[in-house]
Amino acid sequence: MQRIIRRLHDRTIFVVVGFLVPLVIVLPLLRIGLNALEPRSLYYQTLLQNNILVTSVVATIELIIKVGLLSAFVGFIAAYFLTFYEIKFRKVINVLLVLPLGIPVYVAAYTYTNIFHYIPFLEAILRADFMMNGAVFIYSFFLYPYVYLASKSYLSKHITDYIEASETLGGQHLKLFIKIILPLSRPVIIGSVLFAIFETLSDFAVVEYYGVLTLSRYINLAWFSNGDFISASKLSVYILMIMFVLIFIERVSRRQKRYSSADVIHRPIRRYNPSKSMMYIIYVFIGTIIVLATILPITQMLVSVIMNTAYIERLDIIEITFNTLLITVVSTIIIIIVALLLATITIYIKGAKKHLLSSVSTIGYMVPSMVLALGIYILLIRVDQWLYHMFQGVGLNRMLFTSTIAIILFGFFVKFFSVAYTNLLSAYSKMNHHLLEASETLGESKLSTMVRVTIPMLSKSIIAVAIILFIDMAKELTIVYSLRPFNFKTLSTEVYRYAGNEMINIAAFPSLVIIAMCTLLILYLEGGSKRVKTP
Fold it and tell me: Where are the transmembrane segments (predicted)?
């Protein structure tokens, strides 16, 4: 009897989680959709009548196309060089090429304001359309690691057989690259570029700082400057349409090209010894990336900190670091627990239900942060108003969500749940399922099996996922800035505040704290764990 009660209890937990998680992720988007249907929208009508809306849509599309092309070029070529050529200090170079993931794009944008003045050729290149080209440069050189990591992993595991077959037919290196490697890698390049584009669409600080009038910028203006949720929702629909078109293109690309097989035993890549001229090209290319994306910005920030010690001492760095750690650590714990429960559910269901549950549960990461934050704020404002009127008589005198950090935790959950869920589900599916069946045969419930068997076996994956979540959330500005309660400061919001007031040198210190935390974790992942995956 006790076993039956325990199984019913576990079943209840799994049913509740399986129902609530997709609902929580979809509700903010539904709220935006309902708001967008409202007819009254003065700010939106102004944008429409003055042709500003069309201009912003064109600017957004231009931005993501340029970022996609440049980040694909930088990331894939770097991955190709490191995979196929014998290069000295390979491991060090690999780490240095990944480090830009630890530098938030808004930090890079603020830092490069000073750097552009010291490097005439960069300023000359970007001068023709400095606002757009400056933003493209920042996004591309600090988001290319998405392409680099995915491409390097693919090239090292799935290309060997094709290369060896082509070499037996007398293929030259350049010909192999153009006719074999590049076409085979196209789905991987498109998929990884998509994540760089999602990050670009999610950011508002860089386009705001460089004056690029994209849809994100106008959503920000409609929401914060005009308090017009309806106009902001209508503009958000355009970004969501762009997002769904990109997802469709990526899915079509994946369907058309399927080259790898789980049954193939992948042999190690046989690397080429480059000629002197080729070696020169490789080192110049990779060295330029490392200097522009890592050495220059960090050096500039260190100089700013040293030169402005007196001002920096006034920063309450302990409080803002504690606040950052509080929301990131608590969110990481919540997300991992729920992701483990949902992954357990997904393993035991089949067919259309499994596909629907996975698809809905992972959509949050793809939605731009500004759009997601808007939907969450509108949704929770309504919930808070309902709770306030319902429980006012029993002493409830404040908003439970929108006046506390709960709203940030909610935003982090919706945005980053996909990161934990997809990685843990992937690790879960590779486990020996006979162990799970044996545990249940011995009378353990699914929940007990998850705690006693699954979690210990997936401990390395869980640690890796926790680190990835921490890095993403520590860098996140849009959700924290848009949803934070009054006077709640974090490292990212302080960087934005000081940079917005033209105090870029003061913003350097909290920027370095973010970079230091993220860099240490990236070094740990690169050195000790190879289970790092993009969602």
Answer: 12-32, 52-85, 92-110, 130-149, 188-210, 230-249, 280-306, 326-349, 356-380, 400-421, 462-483, 503-525
- Per residue in 332-354, pLDDT tens? 999 999 999 898 888 877 777 77
**Token pair in block for residue 481:** 């800035």
From CA 217, how far away is CA 43, in angstroms rounded?
Answer: 14
pLDDT per position as a tens digit, 266-302: 566 777 788 889 999 999 999 999 999 999 999 999 9
Per DSSP, the three-state class of 272 is strand
Please give the biggest Cα pair distance in the chain: 84
- Phi, psi (5° rounding) for residue 432? -80, 105
38-259+275-303 shares the fold of 1-37+331-487: yes
Integer Cα distance of 71 and 75 in angstroms? 6
Classify the C-alpha dihedral 63-64-65-69 as positive or negative: positive
Architecture field, domain 38-259+275-303: Orthogonal Bundle (1.10)
Collapse the DSSP code of 399 into the 3-class scheme (helix H, G, I; strand E, B; otherwise coil) and give the result. Answer: coil
* Residue ranges per structural domain of the chain: 1-37+331-487, 38-259+275-303
Concatenated DSSP letters of 203-259: --HHHHHHT---HHHHHHIIIIIT--HHHHHHHHHHHHHHHHHHHHHHHHHHHH---
Are 290 and 145 within 8 A, CB to CB?
no
Tokens of 377: 């704020």
371, 32 contact by CB (below 8 A) = yes
Distance from first CA to last CA of the chain, Å, rounded? Answer: 42
In this prediction the pTM is 0.88
Q: Report the distance separating Cα 499 and Cα 476, nearest Å.
A: 16
**What CATH topology corresponds to 1-37+331-487?**
MetI-like fold (1.10.3720)
